[in-house]
Amino acid sequence: MYFPAALLSLFASFYSARAATAEQWRGRSIYQLITDRFALPEGANPNACDPGKQDFCGGTWKTIRENLDYIENAGFTAIWISPINQNYEGPRSAYGEPYHGYWIQDISQLNDRFGTADDLKALINDLHSRDMYIMVDVVVNNVMATSTTPDYSKYFFKNASMYHSYCPIQWGNTTSEQNCWLGDDKVPLPDVDTTNPTVVAQYGDWIQNLVKEYDIDGLRIDAAKHVQMDFWPQFCAKAGVFCMGEVFGGLEVDPIAQYQGPQALDSVLNFPMYSALVEGFAIPGPGNITAVSTVFEQSRSKFKDTGLLGNFLENQDVSRWHNISVDPQSLYNAMVLNWMMDGIPIIYYGQEQLFSGAADPYNREPLWTSNYTESDTYKFIKALNQFRNFLVKTDWLEQETHILTTSPYGIAVMKGQVISVATNIGSPPRNNTNIAVPSPYDPSSEMTNVLTCQQWVVGSEGYLDVEYTKGGTPVILMPRSSLEGSGLCGNSLTQNAGNSDRQVSSAGTLSSLRMSLLPLATFLLFWTFYLL
Ligand SMILES: *[C@@H]1O[C@H](CO)[C@@H](O)[C@H](O)[C@H]1NC(C)=O
Ligand SMILES: *[C@@H]1O[C@H](CO)[C@@H](O)[C@H](O)[C@H]1NC(C)=O
Ligand SMILES: *[C@@H]1O[C@H](CO)[C@@H](O)[C@H](O)[C@H]1NC(C)=O
Ligand SMILES: *[C@@H]1O[C@H](CO)[C@@H](O)[C@H](O)[C@H]1NC(C)=O
Ligand SMILES: *[C@@H]1O[C@H](CO)[C@@H](O)[C@H](O)[C@H]1NC(C)=O
Ligand SMILES: *[C@@H]1O[C@H](CO)[C@@H](O)[C@H](O)[C@H]1NC(C)=O
What we know:
Structural class: alpha/beta
Largest sheet: 8 strands, parallel
CATH superfamily of the largest domain: Glycosidases
CATH class of the largest domain: Alpha Beta
Shape: globular
Strand order of the largest sheet: 10-9-8-5-2-1-12-11
Number of helices: 16
Low-confidence stretches: 1-17, 497-532
CATH architecture of the largest domain: Alpha-Beta Barrel
CATH topology of the largest domain: TIM Barrel
Mean pLDDT: 91
Bound molecules: 2-acetamido-2-deoxy-beta-D-glucopyranose
Number of strands: 20
Helix content: 25-40%
Number of domains: 3
């Protein structure tokens, strides 16, 4: 069949011009990047970017677009980019240039350091043509200044009455955390008064237009806990897309969980599980697997919807995993949990290259020094994404995750048909660290470790015995017959519907078939309308 290109692109825009909901984000996996640091324009000096200097390094929306294959080939189905709006312009601040995009001045304009409106639209169109989503980072809580008595006329909100008056934050005092100013005396961040009805209305109109104009699929909201909670439902309703907030925290689940739900946001970044994975898996570290199981159980009862949380091990604010834990197996095992439990997995650019910078600004390295190599970690992430992208077309996302067992050396979890076993022992081989995993499968059932394609057989009473005599590598087991159609471990990418030998005809397999037929049906429907 031949379709004229113009009609195809008309169809593509028809198909993609829809705001993405929480439900549509649930099955995605996200690559987070800082626009300035992801890719250089051709001809630029690749050796001129020193994160310690806090200067612009030259990345743009156009250079992201030129390098999308690198992200898509790793199996990601969305990207999250650093803020796109105009930032502070003036003499260099005590903390350098606003290369990261978080130092907002005027939200009614784009940041021309990163390109034009057309460049941004071209990036987003390209993503949509790959069936990938765009999540844009937005800063609502504050603007940036270089003194506590700034000239408000340069900001979007031009009247001092639209800001809270200056006070330093008293941590632990919620009112103070919401109304006082983030930052410090060198770079204060004037706190926008988000209880002011004019501010609320103007923010609502702004986000509605921004999402529409650029066809944005989701928002990552900076410093969400520094704005009063009841601001968010109407703001996100105006945006009409998935909202994931940054509510910074540690192991404690309660203070974070209260921000998810109809009273606040669709989702938050999963700081409790991040903190627990550091406790449980970092080497050296306390190796406290109980922290992981405790946060897991509390999350299950306290979060409104753990399937929407943003699971991460690195971001622009915390030290890279490889800085706190050099053994790559510690990263791989922790990543397996982020992919195979509830939640939307997120990688921070450079994690796939084992970058090792400490906290801000050293964790904002330029990616180009890696030459975009398909490193072992890149390949590991690609395998996780390929497997999860297959699972999300079945009923896997709707299945509850539960812990099968914990040991001092690791934890085994099950979601749907998939059993994942993660250990914290690291790369060196160890004897006497076996984890005996009680599974619901019948003895002698055939399983495949999707990370290595090795075949496993379930032992007596349904136990799976995982041993680490060759080192502490993670294990992901799936019944062999259920991998049909996955494209993994020798299985083709398509269902063999005529295969009458197939024993398993689970709801998962059927719904995956339905999902793959859906776009075709939509396409035919569109053509029917078009030809009428
Ligand atoms: C700024 O806010 C003050 C106090 O609410 C108000 O009296 C004044 O009219 C406002 N100015 C402008 C230009 O809106
Ligand atoms: C909490 O912070 C608010 C705002 O700065 C302040 O008015 C209030 O006195 C503080 N409460 C306590 C108990 O310190
Ligand atoms: C391990 O974590 C649990 C749960 O957070 C905590 O109660 C316990 O004190 C921790 N143990 C160690 C040795 O840090
Ligand atoms: C962690 O970061 C600090 C500061 O950048 C650096 O000195 C140190 O070498 C890093 N550690 C590792 C293991 O890379
Ligand atoms: C990237 O390529 C440059 C130029 O060929 C080379 O000097 C450098 O070692 C490479 N870096 C990595 C991490 O492969
Ligand atoms: C594990 O046990 C085997 C067999 O007894 C032995 O050869 C090997 O050296 C042991 N490995 C370690 C790391 O202790």
